[in-house]
Design brief:
This protein is mainly beta. It contains five helices and 30 strands.
Length: 422
């Protein structure tokens, strides 16, 4: 007959040494943890917490008042907690902010700092410092001021070279800050410090500052531009003596073969870019439609010529264009229907009136005699040099001569038009 199953017996477990040892260890651990959690000693911990500056929903926001000062305010918070929790408490568990709702006017204010914890925090805030923060509060203002360059050393070009006028990627700086301080800004200055014996142009990154009437730096303002930074290009120019030269528009071919051109100076001492390899100084161009028989004088301001520095004191050059008295004039009648409008593709143009219905030509008599209206090409172009629009009303009358020889059109002619969409 099979043995009967052994019955579970608490008595046997009690008198089992191994079981008693295991139970004792487990009970001891439970009791130790319970005592440690409930009877753990209290401790304190100091935590640095950044202070939030927020004007949302305040009277200051409605008045346009902003804070100007150190935006990285922090407080040292002392918390009290059980010792075993201390290592897990961080700045993320604490909030600190300025009570900006107490700011109701501009000026310097000492604003209280408010510190709080999460609702389920297992610690308390014992103290914190500082309890308030001083700062300047004002309405924001923004102005645009030209940048002035201040050369720390003047003699930086090599012998035989000279510095030209510097150009900036942005000539004006935007100064922004509290109105009280922005109103004190009178100039924006940027220092330039270059090495000596330079023969090549230099690009310099600028760090402009805002200063008052006495040249002292104005605090609490920022300087910015449209681009990523301010850069000045300082051209280094080679000193040369160059003869003046001129070009022509609306002139016959080989015009210099039959007119006389004189300059008020034979040469000018200038600084030019060495890489330009210049053999003459171009003063600009003369529109030959303004040239008549006899002497014609045109004055050029050399200070307006870009890329050079005039070194001999010359301010202007007079160019005299002399057309031989033997040249003759001729008048040709035109009408509105003579104007070719094919080039105006996108619009329908109607010629309303012409500034003149007579075109004056100048040239050698025998060549003028061969020219009639069939030799003329008449078109129009917008007076502003742009494109035709429905707002266009005044246009330039552009006249060219086929087989012109020595002949050209004298005078400026315009047309009044009405432009509509096709």
């Amino acid at each position: 007959m099979a043995d009967k199953k052994k019955k579970f017996s608490i008595r046997k477990l009690i008198y089992n040494d191994k079981y008693l040892i295991i139970c004792s260890v487990i009970a001891a651990v439970i009791i130790w943890v319970s005592v440690a959690l409930n009877l753990s000693p209290m401790t304190t911990k100091k935590i640095t917490v950044p202070v939030d500056i927020n004007f949302s929903g305040t009277l200051a926001e409605q008045l346009g008042i902003e804070y100007y000062g150190d935006n990285k305010i922090s407080v040292e918070v002392t918390v009290s907690c059980k010792k075993y929790l201390a290592k897990d408490i961080t700045a993320d568990d604490i909030s600190a902010s300025l009570k900006t709702n107490s700011v109701t006017s501009t000026g310097y204010h000492s604003v209280p700092i408010y510190v709080s914890t999460k609702e389920d925090a297992e610690f308390t805030v014992e103290s914190y410092y500082p309890t308030s923060a001083e700062g300047f509060y004002d309405v924001s203002q923004e102005v645009s001021i030209p940048i002035e360059l201040n050369y720390k050393n003047k003699d930086f070009a090599a012998e035989g070279y000279v510095a030209g006028e510097a150009t900036l990627n942005e000539s004006n700086a935007t100064v922004k800050g509290p109105s009280t301080y922005v109103s004190n800004v009178k100039r924006v200055v940027a220092d330039i410090d270059l090495e000596k014996n330079l023969k090549e142009s230099q690009a310099v990154t600028l760090d402009p500052i805002a200063v008052d009437d006495n040249g002292r730096r104005v605090e609490y303002v920022t300087i910015s531009g449209k681009e990523q930074g301010f850069v000045a290009t300082v051209p280094i120019l080679k000193i040369q003596n160059l003869p003046p030269s001129i070009s022509f528009t609306n002139a016959p071919q080989n015009v210099e073969d039959f007119v006389k051109i004189d300059y008020s100076v034979n040469s000018l001492k200038v600084g030019v870019l060495e890489s330009a390899d210049t053999t003459s100084l171009s003063l600009g161009s003369i529109d030959f439609s303004k040239v008549k028989k006899g002497k014609n004088e045109f004055v050029f301001d050399v200070s307006k010529i870009s890329g050079i520095a005039v070194l001999d004191g010359t301010t202007e050059v007079v160019v005299t264009v002399t057309v031989p008295e033997s040249f003759d004039t001729k008048t040709i009648d035109i009408s509105r229907s003579d104007i070719n409008l094919d080039a105006v593709d996108d619009y329908r143009v109607r010629i309303l009136n012409l500034s003149s219905y007579h075109i004056t030509l100048i040239g050698k008599k025998d060549e003028l005699d061969k020219i009639n209206k069939s030799n003329l090409s008449l078109t129009i172009s917008p007076a502003d040099g742009g494109k035709f629009t429905t707002d266009s009303s005044d246009c330039n009358l552009v006249i060219s001569i086929k087989d012109a020889g020595t002949c050209w059109v004298y005078g400026q002619y315009t047309a009044k038009v009405r432009v509509t969409e096709k």
